[in-house]
Amino acid sequence: MTDNRATATPAAENSDHGFIDSKDEDLILVLDFGSQTAQLITRRVRDQHVFCQLVRHDLSAERIREMKPKGLILSGGPSSVYAEGAPQPDPEIFNLGIPILGICYGMQLACRSQNSEIKPVETREFGRSSCRIVSAADLFGEIPEKLTVWMSHGDQVQELSDEFESLAATDSCTYAAVKHRTQPIYGLQFHPEVTHTEHGDRLLANFVRGICGCRGSWRISSLIDREVKLLRERVGSSRVICGLSGGVDSAVTAALLYKAIGPQLSCIFVDNGLLRKGESEAVEQEFTQHFRTDLHVSDARQQFLDELRDVTDPQKKRKIIGRVFIDVFRKEAESITDARFLAQGTLYPDVIESGANPDGPAATIKAHHNVGGLPEELGFELIEPLRDLFKDEVRRMGLELGLPEHLIWRHPFPGPGLAVRCLGAVSEPKLATLREADAILIEELRSAGLYRDIQQAFVVLLPVQSVGVMGDARTYEDAIAIRAVQTDDFMTADWYQFPHKVLARISTRIINEVRGVNRVVYDISSKPPSTIEWE
Ligand code: XMP
Question: Which partner for 355 in 53, 94, 272, 362 could form a disulfide, CB atoms 3.0-4.6 Å apart?
């Protein structure tokens, strides 16, 4: 991943996306002042079936006028509006007559532009606050008088200019929501986009549909049409390479490109031998029989095994796998001589999670290697058509593009694959054990109807032998740990409370059917402090 999302660097600055022509589509623009939730605002607006795009905070008023948005949302941000160098919008945006909703920092900017005074608060306010609505104007339509809101600020409006009226207050924030008396400018000191704010969706709907007059007719198919159009424009008659990993993101990227440019797409699939049972065959079948892409499969199983021999340190394994992957990929890509672009399935959460600012809130915990992690020296121009999207939007897009349900809903799988589930040194017999045991686990989850209740489940081969009895004989064999977690975002996770009958069946089947395993244990650790993977 090439994007570094430092706290104060708005993600939209790096977006190379084109803009839509909003003749057919209602458009809301979110001006990105660097908040970690700027993308979430975009997503919440899209949940209202209104197309929404995150753009640089300093996009000129002239350009905004050309794009004809129905409304502007100014995001939060980590700076103080009065600090030197704090990101500012083009002041002319307040004279466009387009409805504006400022959130947190965005509200402070809007109020300051209209002569209000912003100051630091004595006690910074983070977390839930009880909010009273004092004027149930349009923005608070159909919202109860009292609601819990999520605050996260160190500054606030101290003196509100006469041009504004107050709409809501909390105990420590007199101006929790405001409205300009004559212009369509609104401000919220709290964050309607986070789920901790009650009725946040209603609030955003009141703004985008009620105040801005958006129709709510946007669907994921419109996004596909838009991306296809942009891809065709950008790529022209050139060739694009897309790496397939077996996962959802790269598959959707490839399917989208296939729809846009068909025969100009070449896919590369590196078989590293570290995949789940049947996975490489499934990728081949999907991308040669369903989507008839020019698929290049590179069988590098032996090379990965050789390089991983005797390596036990997890981060070393990751580094080796990353390096070998790039090597193999590069060779394969060089054989496609007319390629100009490289497509990657980077999603917005990848952009946050790989934030290279070591002090930032998203400091990387593990040296993650994804197929997305190809270096710039490969010399291609990068295409990342999913980089503004959240996983659920990518899944909906994939289904609409005709990818099969089982692929779309497949649990995530780490780039280093089974190597980090084979604790200690990796070898082919151990990988074979993992593949078999993993396949049994997944089969049982599916047949018990639990697969979609759990966000990630897998087995780990422990580097211990233990004693058992089989028939009359004493055994001394491997132990398998089962890991199954429920999580919203993979940053925190709870271990799954399995029905005992299902666990019993999984254990019996693994011990009976997987040669060399005589013990199964269940991992009951949450994240934090434990991570999801064992290595
Ligand atoms: P952890 O173990 O950090 O995992 O709690 C969180 C999520 O990230 C996945 N993961 C990885 N993905 N390369 C990847 O592409 C990696 O090196 C890697 N390590 C962990 C893990 O499977 C889980 O979904």
Answer: 362
Find out whether 107 and 187 touch, Cβ atoms under 8 Å: yes
Distance 384 CA to ligand 1 centre (A): 21
Mean pLDDT of 412-432: 97
**Longest CA span, the chain:** 90
Which atom of ligand 1 is found nearest the CA of 370? 15
Beta strands in 285-334 (DSSP E): 294-299
Q: What is the pLDDT of residues 381-408, one digit of tens each?
A: 999 999 878 888 899 999 999 999 999 9
| Residue 490 contacts residue 532 (beta carbons within 8 Å) | yes
Report the chain's C-alpha Rg in angstroms: 26
Distance 33 CA to ligand 1 centre (A): 29
* ∠ CA 415-361-45, rounded to 5°: 85
528 lines ligand 1 (CB under 6 A): no
Sign of the torsion angle spanned by Cα atoms 46, 52, 55, 57: negative
CA distances from 329 to 235, 242, 298, 384 (A): 21, 10, 8, 18
The ligand 1 atom nearest the CA atom of 318: 17
Contact 145, 115 (CB under 8 A): no
532 lines ligand 1 (CB under 6 A): yes
Structural domains in the chain? 27-211 (3.40.50.880), 220-408 (3.40.50.620), 428-522 (3.30.300.10)
CB 19 within 8 A of CB 393: no
Pocket flag, ligand 1, residue 533 (CB < 6 Å): yes
- As a whole number of angstroms, the distance between CA 391 and CA 379 comes to 28
Burial of 445 (0-12, 13-18, 19+ CB in 10 A): buried
User: What tokens appear for 331 in the block?
Assistant: 């060779």
351 in Cβ contact with 1 (< 8 Å): yes
> Looking at residue 17, what is its pLDDT?
45
Band the pLDDT of 375: cuts 50, 70, 90: confident
Q: In the block, which residue shows the tokens 């233990």?
A: 466
Q: For ligand 1, is residue 527 a contact (CB within 6 Å)? A: yes
In the reported structure, the alpha carbon of residue 359 is separated from the centroid of ligand 1 by a whole-number distance in angstroms of 20
Which residues are registered as beta bridge partners of 520? 480
Categorize the per-residue pLDDT at 351 as very low, low, confident or very high, splitting at 50, 70 and 90: low
Task: Please report the pLDDT score of residue 490 as a whole number.
Answer: 86
